[in-house]
Amino acid sequence: MRPGQKEQADRLMGGCSFIHATKVAAMEKVEELFTRLDKGDDIDGIRRDIADLIVESMNQKREEFGYWEKHQFGGAIAALGRNIAIGNKASTSSLRMCLSCIENAFTPPDERDENYVPGKPEVEALTFDLLMDDARKLGGH
Length: 141
Prior knowledge:
Blueprint: H1 5-13, H2 18-39, H3 43-61, H4 67-86, H5 93-105, H6 121-124, H7 128-137
């Protein structure tokens, strides 16, 4: 596990509710994808799995889809799109950034610093449906 990963999973499991369990499942998928990147597994397969994870994670967060989630999932979609667009399978930094954004989307509200950047109307204007449509265009199911 990467530094802090176990602590984040333990924090998310507090209370053991279904919502916490789905968050932990998402974190486990993120960790698995980081491991696959480290091993040099098939990048096209990793990209597909990341797109699926974005769709799955967004659906889990649908009821609490505020500025934080818009910013994190928008960043994840943009990073995945960037990686696909450059076409260089040896470059994985955008995919790592994408996975980091997915992780951040699950940060509990009391642990966020929502003032680290000023709120932007362009981010506010993003809707769940717009981001979901973009994630599906990148291959997410």
